[in-house]
Amino acid sequence: MAALPFLKMHGLGNDFVVIDLRDRPVSLTLPQRRWIADRRRGIGCDQLILLEPPRQRVADVFMRIHNPDGGEAGACGNATRCVAAKVMAEKATGHVIVETVSGLLDADVVESGRIAVDMGLVKLDWREIPVAEPCDTLHLPLSLGPLADPVGVNVGNPHAVFFVADAEKVDLASLGPVLERHRLFPERANIELAQIVGPERIRMRVWERGAGITQACGSGACATLVAAARRKLTGRSATVVLDGGELLIEWLPDNHVRMTGGWTESFRGEIDFAELERAVA
Questions:
Q1: Whether residue 107 sits in one domain with residue 17
Q2: How far from chain centre, in Å, is Cα 27?
Q3: Cβ neighbours around 42 below 10 Å, total
Q4: Which residue is catalytic, options 45, 82, 217, 222?
Q5: What is the SS3 assignment for 73?
Q6: How many domains does the chain have?
Q7: What are phi and psi of 224, to 5 degrees?
Q8: Per-residue model confidence (pLDDT) at position 16
Q9: 76 catalytic, yes or no?
Q10: What are the tens digits of pLDDT across the range 151-162?
Q11: Alpha helices of 42-149 — where are they, by DSSP H?
C-alpha cells in the first residue's frame, strides 16, 4: 500500500483524523494509531476515527473510535456528526445511521446544515456506568480538592459530572487525570465541570478519558444536561457551552438524548504507509 487517504475534521474544535477502511481493510497497530494522533510526530487529533463496513443491515457505516493513547472509546458525539455529514454527502441523503460499539446512532441534517444525532439511551444504574461499588449515581462518593459529589451518567462512555460555581477557575489539567483513573471507575471515566448559567444554559469543560482536555465533547455535553436535569438545576433541554462552541442537548421522554451541532472538514491528505511503518519501527 503506497498511501492511506484521510480527512481532518472537527466538531467545535474537537478534532479527528478520519480514515475510510470500508473498501480497503487495513489493520493499524497500537503504535501506528498513537503516531497518527500525535500532534508533534504525526497528524494530530483528539480521536482517530476508522470507518468500516456496517455489521447491521440498517446501518450505513461502522465508526470505530480510538483515543490518542490508542485505546478504544464507545461513543463520540462530535465525531458522529462529522462522519454522518461525510456519509450523507456520499449518499445524497439527509438521514444516516452510524453504528458504533455502543449501538446505533440516528443522524439527521437540520437547519443551517447542522446535524442532530440521537445518542441513544441514557444509562444511570451504577452497574451500567460502570462504577466499582453499589451507590446512588446521583451522588457518587467521590471528591478531590475543590470537586465533590458528582453525578454518574453513561452516554456511550462513563461520565462523572461535577457542578461548580465557576468552571474556569478549577484546575482541570491537574484534577482530570487523577479522577479519570480513580478506583471508582473500572473503565476510567470522562470528567466534566458544569456551571449552571441559567435554566437553559450550562457552561462545561471536559477532561476526556484517554485524551485529556479537549475543546468539546458531545457525549460529555449529553451527560452534563442529564446530570443537571436529574439534580433539577435545569429542564430536560439546554444549550451546553463548551470551549469550542455550543451544542443543543435534549433529554427526550423515551430516555434517549439528542445532540445538535455543527461540523467542519478542515483538510484532506494521505499517509505514506511505508513511512508510517518506519516511524513506529
A1: yes
A2: 23
A3: 20
A4: 217
A5: strand
A6: 2
A7: -65, -45
A8: 97
A9: yes
A10: 999 998 999 999
A11: 77-91
Clarify whether residues 153 and 236 are in a common domain.
yes
Other CB atoms within a 10 A radius of the CB of residue 275 amount to 11
Q: How confident is the model at residue 1 (pLDDT cuts 50, 70, 90)?
A: low
Question: Using alpha carbons only, what angle is made at residue 34 by residues 18 and 187, rounded to the nearest 5 degrees?
Answer: 95
pLDDT tier for residue 102 given thresholds of 50, 70 and 90: confident
CA angle 75, 83, 154 (to 5 degrees): 15
Residues 136 and 75 in one domain: no
Q: Name the active-site residue from 45, 76, 82, 222.
A: 76
Q: Where are the beta strands (DSSP E) in the chain?
A: 3-11, 14-20, 47-52, 61-66, 72-73, 95-100, 103-109, 115-121, 143-144, 147-148, 151-154, 158-163, 190-198, 201-208, 212-213, 237-242, 245-251, 256-261, 264-272
Q: Are residues 18 and 109 in the same domain?
A: yes
Mark whether 45 is an active-site residue.
Answer: no
Q: Are 97 and 130 contained in the same domain? A: no
- Same domain for 131 and 56: no
Q: How many CB atoms lie within 10 A of CB 197?
A: 15
CA dist., res. 81 & res. 86, Å (int): 9
pLDDT digits (tens, 9 = 90+) for 172-225: 999 999 999 999 999 999 999 999 999 999 999 999 998 999 999 999 999 999
DSSP of 53-66:
--SSTT-SEEEEEE
Q: What is the CATH number of the domain that holds 54?
A: 3.10.310.10
pLDDT at residue 100 tops 90: yes
76 and 138 both lie in a single domain? no
Beta-ladder partners of 279: none
Find the domain containing 205 and state its range: 121-261
The predicted model scores a pTM of 0.91
DSSP notation for 254-281: TSEEEEEE--EEEEEEEEEHHHHHHHT-
Same domain, 9 and 95: yes
